Amino acid sequence: MFNERKEKSSQGELLSVTINSGIVKFDTLDRKNNSSADKSNYRVVRYGDIAYNSMRMWQGASGLSMYNGIVSPAYTVITPRTNTDAGFMAVNFKRKSMIQVFQRNSQGLTSDTWNLKFPVLKNIRISIPKITEQQIITELFTVINNLIAANEYNLKNVLSIRGRFNLHLLM
Question: Which of 37, 101, 111, 121 is the most buried (most CB within 10 A)?
Answer without folding.
Answer: 121
